[in-house]
Design a protein that fits this description.
Blueprint (H helix, E strand, L loop, with lengths): L3 H5 L2 H17 L3 H26 L7 H18 L4 H22 L5 H21 L1 H4 L11 E3 L2 E3 L3 H22 L2 H11 L1 H6 L4 H27 L9 H14 L4 H24 L6 H17 L4 H31 L1
Antiparallel strand pairs: 1-2
Helix pairs in contact: 2-8, 3-8, 3-11, 3-12, 3-13, 4-5, 4-6, 4-11, 5-11, 12-13, 13-14
């Protein structure tokens, strides 16, 4: 497959990012930070999918935690209860959220904007309730225990550096795929839907089809993240897939910039860094509890929404591009003035 998107967004950015992923465990060796970085990768997969849905299709989803939970519980049931290999459960854990998204998108194809957001919020509540109440399958509020570890060619992928590399390998795959999509014909169609769905329909764009496709893709990314989370944690419970988690994913995308694949990634990393800073401060100052983390999230979000409505990454890159343009214009004017003096 020809990767048009990667070519247009420059391979250098992707390669530098891959290099940073590679060297991070060589510089930061503490298990706490490696675990946080691994969680950041899992969340980044969800945020990138949600960013595609929000920034390019113009749809808001408050139910990504539901797809995340469906992926995690699918692999848990298949591996811990039925004895499947985790690798065989991987495509199923991605496919089941996709099927749910298909039927949900099909039945709600006429919804958009706030109405779709409310519908996805309802999905999140329904799925969370099922995870708690369907005890015969999900084990109820106590959750699943004994989810098997991943093995590859006889090597157990344990927590720490091995799982960190596995998660960020999948992040790179999702990143490259998403960059390819947003710079393809599908991406241009999605951007036109985001700007004006009515105008896009008038121009012959099948808006329903593209919105459905990106909705399913974002659900598949969330299912993949759920699979990674389940086999990293060895145990899961419905508490990890609440509406709070959906709002946190939404905050990551808004903070980094919903109109940019890189923005969703940057937003995720920033949110995790804030969590680490609050944790470090909490060890020194007892009055700083984990709830303080949410206060900081709220303050940062307020500042970003007010002063950088496009999000951090698009705003910062826009400033640099504007600065470069001004410098180039100034240099051209000086060259013209120098040429006139010589004449």
């Amino acid at each position: 497959m020809k990767l048009h998107g990667v070519q247009q967004t420059k391979w250098s950015g992707v390669l530098i990012f891959a290099l940073l992923i590679l060297v991070f465990p060589m510089i930061v060796t503490q298990s706490f930070y490696l675990t946080q970085a691994t969680f950041a990768g899992i969340y980044a997969i969800i945020a990138i999918g949600l960013g595609l849905l929000m920034g390019y299709a113009g749809q808001i989803s408050l139910g990504q935690a539901a797809f995340y939970g469906i992926g995690a519980y699918t692999t848990s049931v298949l591996t811990a209860t039925m004895g499947w290999s985790p690798w065989i459960s991987l495509p199923v854990a991605i496919l089941v959220p996709a099927v749910v998204a298909f039927f949900m998108g099909y039945t709600m194809s006429r919804l958009s904007g706030y109405y779709l957001a409310m519908a996805t919020l309802a999905l999140g509540i329904i799925v969370h309730t099922l995870l708690v109440e369907w005890r015969g399958v999900t084990k109820g509020a106590s959750g699943f225990f004994g989810i098997p570890q991943l093995n590859l060619f006889g090597f157990t992928i344990t927590q720490g550096v091995p799982y960190y590399y596995l998660v960020w390998f999948f992040v790179l795959v999702v990143l490259v795929l998403s960059l390819n999509i947003v710079h393809s014909r599908v991406g241009r169609a999605l951007r036109s839907i985001h700007d004006s769905e009515i105008a896009s329909s008038a121009m012959g764009v099948n808006t329903g089809k593209y919105k459905m496709q990106i909705f399913i893709l974002s659900a598949m990314f969330a299912g993949l993240a759920g699979w990674l989370f389940a086999h990293m944690s060895y145990s899961i419970s419905p508490a990890a897939f609440t509406m709070d988690a959906s709002i946190l994913f939404l905050a990551m995308v808004v903070l980094g910039g919903s109109g940019s694949v890189w923005g969703a990634l940057i937003g995720t990393l920033l949110i995790r860094v804030v969590g680490i800073v609050v944790h470090a401060l909490g060890e020194k100052f007892p009055f700083i509890t984990s709830d303080f983390e949410h206060v900081i999230y709220g303050l940062i979000l307020m500042l970003v929404v007010i002063f950088m409505p496009r999000g951090l990454f698009p705003s910062v890159t826009g400033w640099f591009e504007s600065l470069a343009t001004k410098r180039s214009s100034k240099k051209s004017m000086l060259e013209v003035a120098a040429a006139k003096r010589e004449v």
